[in-house]
Design goal:
2 copies of one chain form a homodimer.
Chain A lengths: L20 H8 L3 E5 L2 E4 L1 H20 L3 E2 L5 E3 H7 L1 H4 L5 E4 L5 E4 L4 H11 L8 E10 L14 E11 L2 H21 L5 E4 L9 E8 L5 E6 L17 H12 L3 E3 L5 H4 L7 E16 L3 H4 L2 E3 L5 E3 L1 E8 H11 L1 E2 L2 E2 L10 E5 L5 H16 L4 E4 L5 H11 L3 E5 L1 H5 L3 E5 L5 E4 L1 H11 L9
Parallel strand pairs in A: 3-7, 19-20, 19-21
Antiparallel strand pairs in A: 1-2, 4-6, 5-6, 7-8, 8-16, 9-10, 10-13, 11-12, 11-13, 13-16, 14-15, 17-18, 21-22, 22-23
Helix pairs in contact in A: 1-10, 2-6, 2-10, 6-7, 11-14
Subunit structure (chains A, B): Homodimer.
EC number (chains A, B): 6.1.1.15
Function (chains A, B): Catalyzes the attachment of proline to tRNA(Pro) in a two-step reaction: proline is first activated by ATP to form Pro-AMP and then transferred to the acceptor end of tRNA(Pro).
């Protein structure tokens, strides 16, 4: 993409309404624009990141054997009355009357509807296990929406649901989700720590929240510092293998890590003092096992091996996809702007032409731009007639991990400059080698296209 | 995907509520399930097709130089009051009050909001031309929703908006969209004929609808039969070249082709009698040029080259993505079921194992399944313990274009059977050759992943 033709409305001033850094930087980098309180438009660069996160979630869900589907945003109130949640949900649910005066709502979550689909079509234990998920817009009518996409009213969320014959199978689904969520966050360049949490309006016995440590987090968290040393990394995990998945779950949840809702001072004090930590965390996902809480009232049963009907064991699992855009920025920025992890950057590299209009510099930039594209890498080429300082400031603000700077002086020596946004370090090298190096960096960070 | 683990709730009976073939087949093939009147859940196979169509639209929009972004589904009524459409839109607009009693709505289209984004961020003619689009869920509260996804209330739509300095530039945007829409439909295996239409509540001077001929179409159309012989095909078109785009527009719109709203009997009778046709058509897209209709009331002006503010010339463009799933089925099916065009099929090939449990047949199927996957092709492998007749009926119903049938008898001679869903023709050939042939067929039909 050429910056001269891109819609990237960068702001020079800090917007007064933005209280936290991700909100400020998303507005300043031209990623979002508020449409109403807590409701945002995603401008081209913001949408590009959102879509990459969506695709990473889809890819990791497919790898775990879960099936993508999609439920509508507007649902009838009837099912919610059946489960008892229509009244229980309170003012956060956006309630709507259609033209025939029927009670509808904008779905904040979809346990009822997926259970309705299940009970209509699944009759036998032989059809289990079954896990389906969607990535769809949700609405929660927050009293005081704030912090940009971190606590908006309309938000983009992955929600998944598993149906199993036994508690044991359902707990495997729980563990499998824990593993696949860890992989999802790591691909996004995030460390998200599973912490024992409270189940809230979803209900159920077992639940873990995934928290990204950041000063601006809404939750107070308490943990053993050793938990931050664990990584999933490149381990090859068979999602059908119950023991493997359980082992990962146990490894990641053995050490103390809890939100304030479930914090236990006595247990916390058992941690060696030098490893006791309290900090702030951003919630980016949650998994639940809630047994037959929905299957019983909604009549989601299957015929068991003995011919008798049994209610299925269920769980649900959520990743806040739009909120993750903010969380990644909270976890990865400096005073100049965003620093995108390679796995989610909107463009793989920026090209800065120091002397637009200079025939040689222009030709070198074009050639770099084309060479990167030929390798399936996306470059953002700043081809505007601006001073170098302004171009650097824009690149730093929008946070592409790698920048190639092209100027007449370097070209005389056959080199361009390759700069890491994160470290600030630069090296001079011939253009072909810069392209090769960038291609190598991104070899492990490919997401399927838009 | 193995059918034994897939969620594909195929119905044996014709659902009573489905009046047209696409609705019937989408329900029978387990693609959708009604959630409320005119509102559907997309089950895994339905979602897979929907997502492919979405990706084709994204790819073709990017090729034309248009930028993807995303606007929220819930919008404030304020902007719609400013444009005067809040009252004009009538009962089809889903009106909502949030918890603070503010008037909101579920967006049926987004001219107001995109214009608001434009006026906030674009100030100079140098920032033009600019075209942005989104693919987002919309809602129209139809009195009598029917025909499944063809006339639902919640629907998935691409809507794009161009901003230009002059009428001439805006007409180039119009022509460019016409070309890129033609390419989009052709990739989906559809012939969609641009027909002069009425502009309805969007307004404006110039508008064409794209219609797919089908008996179940909601519109009566009149055309010169010669128009159905024109194809875009593999022509290489430079979307920045005004003359090239205009030439394509003229070629495709020179012959008489109109909906009943703009039909002119006198002009129609000028067509040689043997080429005069009246038929039914399904509307799958529409493009508009409406000049300054929104930019003037909403104050979307730029500073022109002479320093004076000028309202921008605009157009908007829509493709009904969820409706296209139905339209493709209306245009491509037989009495046994759906016949997917190669460009949009949920799976590239089906594998039918005639003797599940037979070691040799099972091994041959696994090997075919893996060989196709290794080439990036998706297979649906019917590995259930069902009789051959049932397996064939399911494959015919869900309509994958190519089926590989594997049985002990063929394997003895080293062959499997490759069958075309469209022609019904089969040939016997060694498994490797079947894979090669399928790979060759799909070489020109790749869509970026999920």
């Amino acid at each position: 993409m050429r910056l001269s033709r891109y819609f990237l409305p960068v702001l020079k001033e800090n917007p007064a309404e933005a209280q936290i850094v991700s909100h400020r930087l998303m507005l300043r980098a031209g990623m979002i624009k508020q449409a109403s309180a807590g409701i945002y438009s995603w401008l081209p660069m913001g949408f590009k990141v959102l879509r990459k996160l969506e695709n990473i979630v889809h890819e990791e869900q497919a790898r775990a054997g879960h099936m993508a589907m999609l439920m509508p945003t507007i649902q009838s109130a009837d099912l919610w009355r059946e489960s008892g949640r229509y009244d229980a949900y309170g003012a956060e649910m956006l309630r709507i009357k259609d033209r025939h005066d029927r009670d509808m709502l904008f779905t904040p979550t979809a346990e009822e509807l997926i259970t309705d689909i299940f009970r209509a079509h699944v009759g036998s234990y032989k059809d289990l296990p079954l896990t389906m998920y969607q990535i769809q817009w949700k609405f929660r009518d927050e009293v005081r929406p704030r912090f940009g996409v971190m606590r908006g009213r309309e938000f983009f969320m992955k929600d998944g649901y598993n149906f199993d014959l036994t508690k044991e199978d359902a707990l495997h689904a729980y563990n499998r989700h824990l593993v696949s969520y860890l992989r999802t966050y790591e691909r996004m360049g995030l460390q998200a720590i599973p912490m024992r949490a409270d189940s809230g309006p979803i209900g159920g016995d077992d639940t873990h929240e995934f928290l990204v440590l950041a000063d601006t987090g809404e939750s107070e968290v308490f943990y053993d510092s050793a938990v931050t040393d664990i990584r999933l990394g490149e381990r090859d995990i068979d999602y059908n293998d119950k023991d493997q998945c359980r082992a990962v779950m146990e490894e990641f949840t053995a050490l103390y890590a809890r939100t304030d809702e479930t914090h236990n001072e006595l247990k916390f004090n058992e941690i060696p003092e030098e490893r006791r930590r309290s900090a702030r965390g951003i919630e980016v996902g949650q998994i639940f096992y809630f047994g037959t809480k929905y299957s019983e009232p909604l009549g989601a049963t299957v015929q068991g091996p003995d011919g008798k009907p049994v209610p299925v064991h269920m769980g649900s699992h959520g990743i806040g996809v739009s909120r993750l855009v903010g969380a990644i920025i909270e976890a990865s920025h400096d005073e100049k702007g965003i620093i995108w992890p390679e796995g989610v950057t909107p463009y793989h590299a920026g090209i800065v032409n120091l002397k637009q209009g200079d025939a040689e510099a222009d030709a070198a930039c074009e050639s770099l731009y084309n060479a990167l594209q030929a390798l399936g890498l996306e470059a953002l080429y700043d081809d505007r007639n601006e001073r170098a300082g302004g171009k650097f400031a824009t690149m730093d603000l929008i946070g592409l991990p790698w920048r190639i700077t092209v100027g007449p002086r370097g070209l005389k020596n056959g080199v361009v400059e390759l700069t890491s946004r994160r470290s600030g370090e630069s090296e001079e090298l011939p253009p072909e080698q810069a392209v090769e190096k960038i291609a190598k960096i991104y070899a492990g960070h490919r997401v399927s296209g838009l």
